[in-house]
Amino acid sequence: xxxxxxxxxxxxxxxxxxxxxxxxxxxxxxxxxxxxxxxxxxxxxxxxxxxxxxxxxxxxxxxxxxxxxxxxxxxxxxxxxxxxxxxxxxxxxxxxxxxxxxxxxxxxxxxxxxxxxxxxxxxxxxxxxxxxxxxxxxxxxxxxxxxxxxxxxxxxxxxxxxxxxxxxxxxxxxxxxxxxxxxxxxxxxxxxxxxxxxxxxxxxxxxxxxxxxxxxxxxxxxxxxxxxxxxxxxxxxxxxxxxxxxxxxxxxxxxxxxxxxxxxxxxxxxxxxxxxxxxxxxxxxxxxxxxxxxxxxxxxxxxxxxxxxxxxxxxxxxxxxxxxxxxxxxxxxxxxxxxxxxxxxxxxxxxxxxxxxxxxxxxxxxxxxxxxxxxxxxxxxxxxxxxxxxxxxxxxxxxxxxxxxxxxxxxxxxxxxxxxxxxxxxxxxxxxxxx
Length: 435
What we know:
Shape: globular
Largest sheet: 5 strands, mixed, barrel
Number of strands: 17
Oligomer: single chain
């Protein structure tokens, strides 16, 4: 989501005449788009901003801005720590950034004193419709924001505070954006939302048991040029029969699902205010595997939530093994002020969190390696995205979102190729294109 927001701001600035430069050391304006999901993310952003702010003492004309979730969460309070910041813009005001920068630059060029730091973290009706611009270029994959905000109120999560209430974009606008991207050569689209499967639930009617989100999937599926469709991040409660059945009947819908678990203990799930049980979660996993036996599953897990006992963690570990994830984001619980969990007793010691975190990561590494090794000797469909990090070879992804490295030519970028997998590591596949 943050990557998509950053790209939208960059596209708006470029349309206004600003130029994106290759290095932060060359820029006149530096904007940090921030995250607040964990305290560590905020601390890293503050540290980065502190280091960058030193530059303002040498170059008074240099402009520093903080955008996104930390800006929304902390607002003007950030100026107590970072008095040199010129611009603080929250999650519903990204589209205002070009105007604010124009005003700051105009004041500088006129030689008048620059006004006090601009802080805008107000809510704005319709702001979900403003994240629609994309940078021009040769990209073959794209994120498309379809919904913002969250109404779930999970006990550990600050997102409802930083992103606001759930708001969906008009379906026809999303489809038109996807159609425009396809015309520019985009082949792989990921639909984004805080709870993406809740899309349109207040704005559109269910038709013959088909939810608005699945209706949107069907419309994007019908667009010529789009070859692959993905989505993130869903909620287990969104996996109704129509969505599970969509994996069996929509060929462009990739056999890859991110299905957040958070905990495998019913007691902890209840404390987290997660409205499902471990049993219901495994029913969804089993139904998805029945619909697409080759499906790839990823998840989010939090270890060390307040009150998590050894038995609670054992249940998470058991479910983690049973679900057989191909990828996972395993987090050590982080206190977020203002959330219900922050005030709970029985906070778990850091060393216990770390031990539990490492145990799940060891299981995950074995799973990922085993799944990738099973692909050695097979032929996989890969979308060629461009040069790899070395610039010497090319990279792409399989339908299951596995990174592949191989020799190719610039003419292959944007094409679906057949890749014979020769070897595999935990994180990547290596092979040769079958011509």
